[in-house]
Write a structure and sequence with these properties.
With 484 residues, the protein is mainly alpha-helical. 73% of the residues lie in helices and 3% in strands. The radius of gyration is 24 Å and the shape is globular.
Length: 484
């Protein structure tokens, strides 16, 4: 099997993994509150249960990322992390007590830490100018999982909304009871087991691009793109060079074998690594801040939306499900829009556009949603516009900051760096709902703080705009000289 085919199959497997992570969120979230009530759990257990997954994920992410950086492999890490997803979801299915339910989310969250290794793998196996497109597609896969899970919600006369298929379960499996509360855990346990088979069969630890001789030559050709393609004195020579460049492009995505396979016995990527030198640089701090603020605001808004629609528009579970489905469609379209724009715009320009949209959306929400006035139709229109703008800016910021982060941090420690980035995001997803949960009755304070955070990151970005670019590539030439 050639390099290109292995690469495509590996990317397809990664997309499926992110798709299942979205499905899991969609089928667990609607049932967990009623599940906890049946187990006589106090109200605060809902917050603990939702935060537990993010908490262990933010702790395991850097560890899995460091593992992948040292071994230059990810297949074993994915298989290992999926075991935690399988065990965690089976524990959720067992559901003997509220403590076992809480522990199940803690265990499953460990498996989510493999995302750092995956983003490190994507960074090492993609060219910088195609990276944003790949990241956008992967993120869209997770959103597609959420989208498929959300419409499977219907209104139940007995209480909250449940999955159309899983709500009909009512039988015993040995000592275990399978009902509409426990079945999501069993369902996801089976899905992650199937994914294990897919990873074994389709996923390949393909070598990084910097181990391919064509990659070095291609980088040298691209460094000369601004020079005239045809020499007035000798057009034929440069025309042949242009043809050779196109051949290099083709070979890079086709039949390529590495000159040297990655080996764990190679130089330790962390030998001269300094966390303060890597993460306290101006451009890195800006991107980590953008990661925290955007996820903090996003989860805060998700927490606010349901009480808001119930209070002002009388939405029930069915209405909210339809709303979330439409939101999911918009976000997926947004990711593909960003995928297209990334071909013609720099990552920092896409990030700036996304932050401007988010700021405009926050201002709109403060003006029209904090204290809505007018009839039902007017208020609903104002609400729809506010949500539309908030979701429109999300893909711009999410894709561009991940792509930029992969370019301004060292490639050889990319897994660990992506783990740190995802941990910052995990912390935001914990604090965002906690902040918004206590302020649903005072939207001026909640939205005002969100706007201040967005203004802060906008100022930081303007001051650091010149540094938000990929640094010049020099290590390839050095390594080729040392190898010669």
């Amino acid at each position: 099997m050639d390099y290109r085919r292995k690469r495509e199959l590996s990317f397809l497997t990664i997309g499926l993994l992110f798709f299942l992570s979205g499905v899991e969120y969609a089928v667990i979230l609607p049932t967990i509150w009623k599940y906890l009530q049946i187990l006589d759990a106090p109200a605060y257990f809902l917050g603990l249960g939702l935060s537990a997954f993010s908490f262990t994920g933010l702790l395991s992410g850097p560890l899995f990322g460091r593992w992948s950086d040292k071994t230059r492999t990810t297949k074993t890490i994915i298989l290992f992390s999926n075991v935690f997803e399988i065990v965690g979801n089976f524990m959720y299915f067992m559901g003997y007590s509220k403590w076992l339910l809480l522990s199940s989310r803690l265990v499953a969250g460990i498996g989510a830490g493999a995302g750092s290794s995956i983003f490190g793998f994507l960074t090492r196996t993609t060219l910088p100018d195609e990276r944003a497109q790949i990241f956008a597609a992967v993120m869209a896969c997770r959103q597609a999982g959420l989208l498929i899970g959300k419409p499977l919600l219907i209104l139940s006369k007995q209480g909250p909304a449940f999955n159309i298929f899983l709500r009909l379960c009512d039988f015993s499996l040995g000592p275990f009871i399978v009902n509409k509360y426990t079945s999501p855990g069993l369902f996801m346990c089976g899905m992650w087991l199937l994914l294990q088979c897919v990873v074994v069969l389709l996923y390949h630890d393909i070598p990084p691009l910097d181990t391919l001789p064509e990659h070095v030559a291609l980088q040298q050709v691209r460094d000369q793109e601004e020079e005239p393609l045809i020499d007035p004195e000798d057009g034929g020579t440069d025309t042949r060079n242009l043809v050779h460049s196109e051949q290099l492009e083709t070979r890079l995505s086709g039949d390529i074998e590495p000159t040297r396979p990655p080996s764990p016995e190679q130089d330790d990527p962390f030998e001269n690594f300094s966390a303060s030198r890597e993460f306290l640089r101006e451009e890195v701090v800006v991107l980590l801040t953008a990661q925290f603020i955007t996820l903090f605001n996003q989860t805060a808004l998700e927490t606010m939306v349901t009480p808001l629609t119930q209070r002002y528009f009388g939405f029930g579970e069915l209405g909210n499900s339809v709303m979330y489905s439409l939101c999911g469609v918009e976000v997926i379209v947004g990711f593909f829009l960003v995928r297209w724009l990334s071909r013609v715009l720099e990552d920092r320009a896409v990030l700036a556009v996304g932050l401007l949209i988010c700021c405009g959306a926050c201002v709109w929400c403060i003006i029209f949603l904090a204290s809505p006035q007018g009839g039902f139709a007017v208020e609903l229109t104002e609400f729809i516009i506010g949500v539309f703008l908030q979701l429109l800016g999300l893909p711009f910021v999410a894709v561009s900051q991940v792509s930029l982060f992969s370019k301004v941090t060292a490639e050889k420690t990319q897994g660990f760096s992506q783990g740190v980035r995802r941990s910052v995001g995990g912390l935001a997803t914990i604090l965002g709902p906690l902040w918004a949960g206590g302020l649903t009755g005072n939207l001026y304070v909640m939205l005002g703080m969100m706007l201040l955070l967005l203004i802060l990151i906008m100022i930081m970005m303007v001051l650091s705009y010149e540094k938000l670019v990929e640094p010049p590539v020099v290590q390839h030439a050095d390594s080729s000289e040392s190898g010669g």
